Amino acid sequence: MTTQVIAGKTIEFDEDGHMKNLDDWDENVAKELAKMEGIENLTEKHWQVINFMRKVFKEKGDAPSIRKLNKESGISTKELYELFPQGPAKKAAKIAGLPKPKGCI
User: Fold this and answer.
1) 98 class by beta-carbon count within 10 Å (0-12 exposed, 13-18 middle, 19+ buried)
2) Which residues are catalytic?
3) What is the C-alpha separation between 81 and 60, in angstroms, rounded?
4) Largest CB tally within 10 Å, which of 24, 42, 45, 72?
5) pLDDT tens track for 23-46
6) Counting beta carbons within 10 angstroms of the beta carbon of residue 67, is it exposed (0 to 12), middle (13 to 18) or buried (19 or more)?
7) Residue 22 maps to a domain
């Protein structure tokens, strides 16, 4: 577990690099987390995925898998990989301040 100061907040991360306390998340934190993941600017499509993931997590208690993202977010798998390269569900969950989706390696 590590701790970092991001957007003026001291944030704890688990061994997978995901935030421990979901209440520490806000849009400024998300922007900084995105930069740490190699995404300089979050577009409207990025926010669509991030907000969808947070909504599903709030309803179900787990971040959605890539399959659920593809089927229900309105964004194709190809576009998800363009938005969040090298593992869109895991990377988007990190930026959304959520735990790693259960289906991710």
Assistant:
1) buried
2) 104
3) 24
4) 42
5) 999 999 999 999 999 999 999 999
6) exposed
7) yes
